[in-house]
Amino acid sequence: RKEVEQDPGPFNVPEGATVAFNCTYSNSASQSFFWYRQDCRKEPKLLMSVYSSGNEDGRFTAQLNRASQYISLLIRDSKLSDSATYLCVVKRGNFNKFYFGSGTKLNVKP
Amino acid sequence: DADVTQTPRNRITKTGKRIMLECSQTKGHDRMYWYRQDPGLGLRLIYYSFDVKDINKGEISDGYSVSRQAQAKFSLSLESAIPNQTALYFCATSDFGGSDTQYFGPGTRLTVL
Question: Is residue B32 within a helix (H) or strand (E), and if so which, with residue range?
Fold first, then answer.
């Protein structure tokens, strides 16, 4: 079983839509959780960390459910510039090892 | 200037050739990582290093070796390249005791014919 699983998509949404992605992780010992954004053929970049209490950054809201071992990302009022692949990442262990999902592709259309 | 740089950015080589991919960082981070990315598989960890004297295998280290020449430099070698090593390779850094953020280089696109 993969450490981190995501729906690959693509999610095709119109501008202004609200879209949500989920991600599940297999190891309950996972400690830290993140969403990264990756544009086509570019390096991943941190979008936001995910905290147990949930956190928001502008149009983006991340939630963590430890009991069910899933992480979510909600994007409100989608912009064309939000089109990218969103990677779910978990950290586990004392040695900063990170495990990446294969990504969910989002296409925001005019 | 970019904080994490990789050279070369693109490389085409033939089966059996030795290839070295280089990574340098100016962030002063202790921890460095090499990943490969294949379509549909996400990023997979090849090797990681927590300081100059510490090298660890990741989940897919077979066929690869690394060298941590200095805190700022971490090289990945393919001793005898094979076609299924065709992939996008990323170097990353993170800061021990810091925010857990990983900072990635721009990637090296490697094609093995």
Answer: strand B31-38
